[in-house]
Amino acid sequence: MNFFFRIIRYAKPYRKYGFLNILFNILYALFSTLSFLVLMPLLQVIFNPEKATIITQKPTYQGLANSVDFFKEYMGYTIHTVAGEDKSMALTIVIILVIFTFFFKNIFNYLAMFFITFLRNGVLKDIRNDLYQKIVTLPISYFSEKRKGDIMARIGTDVLEIQYSFLSILEMIVREPLTILFTITAMLLISVKLTLFVFIFVPISGFLISLIGKSLKRKSDRVQKEQGLFLSLIEETLGGLKIIKAFNSENTFIAKFKESTNRFFTYSNTLLNRTNLASPASEFLGITVIAILLWYGGRLVLIEHALAGEDFIAYMGLAYNILTPAKAISKASYRVKKGNAAAERVLEVLDTDNPLKDLPDAKSISDFKETITFDSISFKYEEDYVLKDFSLIVPKGKTVALVGQSGSGKSTLANLVTRFYDVTKGSISIDGTNIKNVTKKSLRALLGIVTQDAILFHDTIANNIAFGKSVSKDEIIQAAKIANAHDFIESLPNGYETNIGDSGNKLSGGQKQRISIARAVLKNPPIMILDEATSALDTESEKLVQDALEKMMQNRTSIVIAHRLSTVQNADLIVVMKEGKIIEQGTHQSLIKKDGTYKMLVTMQEL
Ligand SMILES: Nc1ncnc2c1ncn2[C@@H]1O[C@H](COP(=O)(O)OP(=O)(O)OP(=O)(O)O)[C@@H](O)[C@H]1O
Ligand SMILES: [Mg+2]
User: Fold this and answer.
1) pTM of the model
2) Which of 113, 357, 546, 573 stands the most exposed, by the fewest C-beta atoms within 10 Å?
3) One domain for residues 345 and 411
4) Do 46 and 106 belong together in one domain?
């Protein structure tokens, strides 16, 4: 239940609608009771017309205990003043009255639902926005552990479940208890004896029904988890369709998918059947109570003559009237459990602590003046250290190249400078300030990144280059020219307005890379981090991009990661890495002279 109350907070901005909903629910509950009471004069007109139409004296109110009789007499009196002795006229009047009460009952019902809709969908919207915001701010490391589909399930179906189950309960808290309250009051006024009966049997049936609800949360948890798995599978399949086809692995994936849907089938069958049991079980128990009432009430009417026939019929109507809300309340306990499971999953994401949060006194750095310093840093993603006691100084305006075998920790260094991860030991500083004491936003404003795999979005080329920055078309073209992308973009049918498809799949690898270079160029930051920026280019465009990059790097500080050593010969410093450590460093010339690992790598590549 604690999750429930935390979700309720989301309703706060929409409380206006909540109050309107409550107001109309009160009116609805009132009219739904009234709609049974107005049946009494109707039944009286039909079954006992003499008594119904001869009341010529305006009755006086005799206190609450006699208010049902007063109501009936008053109705009879009113009918008599309008219709006189005309029985068919009397019938017409009562029927119109019945129609009116039912009409208003339903109008109020609709209005209550009308207003709560804004609250429900508002909460849905706000939770989703919060979740998305959380996802965007959480560190990269969070997502290497989680399945994407699981996150998608939480933001999609779990939030929907909350909207559906929790908020309909919110509604129920007012409407159903009030309906029950009003109805029971009316029932008490008609017959105290009979109503005591109801009080004995209703709690018993309530208890029986609650037994069914046990363990529902666990069952619904399982269903939601499976849903996440299944979405993950779809997501991965769509992303890797090419490989799946090329390796003829369709059947493996289909089998995997079927396994998941089969589990989903089994789990949700159990869950749904359990949930579905609620309604028939409570209806049956309800009708048992009614049957007992019929037996006892029938005796009161026929044998003891303690109750008028029409009163008894109206009473039965009322008793049936509490069945629906009672059923709804018993169902609500399942819904709470189901909703609680969903809320827990949603809140789990919202509550995730961000280990990379800005410190409260974090400074904002506005420019880069002197050096980037790696001071004996060590880092591990999981168990093993990927970088060990690594130290390096990158002076402003210089280009430092990182080379070395695959897995030696080059991309990891880029991840650390950008604070996608925090170093485990040691420190990285910019102009002497530890980057942990700097706001991530201001730090990243200084950095331009071209990642190893070009990351593009389903949008136009222009938007992929501008990437949220409000810039002119000319600036975009300028950036594209520097990245040597302008010519190929122009040759596309829609030029800069061409949509490049999901993750840029309509472009070649080299084209994607040049667009991501253009994006970094346009950002125009003082520090550039290029992770294999030219790896997907042919020799000719590599030369062009290389020229462009060199031009761009002239008054910038750059960290360049490269496998092709020919691209980093002009770097001010070349750092050769192996297993997270520096094994050699120097300029191209000095390293060649040294005749070590670098020389060997260069020779191998020249062959
Ligand atoms: N998210 C991660 N979680 C756990 N381990 C990781 C993660 N990313 C990388 N690693 C590990 O860290 C090590 C260094 O990886 P890194 O990506 O820095 O290598 P690299 O030098 O860039 O290699 P390449 O030249 O192939 O790009 C590898 O052994 C890799 O298995
Ligand atoms: Mg790498």
Assistant:
1) 0.80
2) 357
3) no
4) yes
